[in-house]
Amino acid sequence: MSLLSKLKSVAKQVLRPEQKAKPVTEFVYDTLPWIDKKDADIASFINHFPAVKELPYDLAEKLAFWRDNGYVILGKAIDTDWLDQLWSEVEELVEHHEKYQTQVRIDLPEYQANPILPVKDVPKTVLNGPYIKFNDFHDNSVIGKKIMLHKNIVTFLEAVFGEKVIAMQSLLFKYGSQQATHQDFAYVVSEIPSHLAAAWIALEDVQIDAGPLSYYPGSHKIAKFNFGNGIFFNNESTLNPGDFATYLDAACQKAGMEKKTLLIKKGEVLIWHAALAHGGEAIRNSALTRKSYVCHYSSDSAYKHHRQRPTEEPVRRTINGADVFVNPTMPDQEDIFTKGKMM
């Protein structure tokens, strides 16, 4: 059960029917990160942000672009040796999958009843194919954590949130996701929904026929979709992800937003807003891969507990001033890929 579902369950126990909270249909303005508010003063913020001189990019320029478009691209942000090390660990995970507990999501019809399994229980042929996502591999990998909390990413997000960054979860995949248009906040739950962002890290150069990521610049400002019970998709929703995608594509096109396709190079990073409408294009050449590392982030005030144990104080790992929580359900799998310690 997600954190949001657990919170709703508690609310139902203490509220009489006439007191039940109304469905959330928009982010609460007072809780928005400063950059999303109408009076956001980037110049003033930059003058008081100590890390601004340490970055290989113009932070003021990136923040202004983020405010208007809902994303930024950081060129040559991650050392490619780090990325090669990460992918070599993924290959080890697949080759000797019977040794590991890492969770994998399988979006294939034959796994529909049970789409999330330990990697040890999934055949190697399936693990090497499309429609596979390795969940939270950063739990297992030192270099996975270092990439996730790389200074170039963390410092930008610290500026966006105006506070300490917390890494929430990660996904690794070999082939394009081919996922319909969506916004992350509907599925990835932070305690303050607007305090959410993601980074897509290219582990190889992206080819047009490999099912690249696509997105609508400026779409973080359109009206939120209502699943029938608010803006979050769960087991009480009366509408589905297909309806969500149809709405987003139509709303963005009506607003005159042009869909862009992301063709970036290995080591470059796309960071995007919680409400940026994006998806994965169709794979036109099945021989082409799109090796990707996707990480989701929140702020210290909005993500205080690991989603697997929302009532417990988490064990933290700190890198570049940001935290990621140790997975409380698999402590024996933490940092079992250790080569990153020397990098």
UniProtKB/TrEMBL annotation:
Database matches in Pfam families: PhyH (PF05721)
GO molecular function: 2-oxoglutarate-dependent dioxygenase activity; iron ion binding
Keyword set, alphabetical order: Dioxygenase, Oxidoreductase
KW Nuclease (keyword) present: no
Entry superkingdom: Bacteria
Cofactor (UniProt): Fe(2+)
Name this polypeptide is given: Phytanoyl-CoA dioxygenase
Annotated InterPro entries: Phytyl_CoA_dOase-like
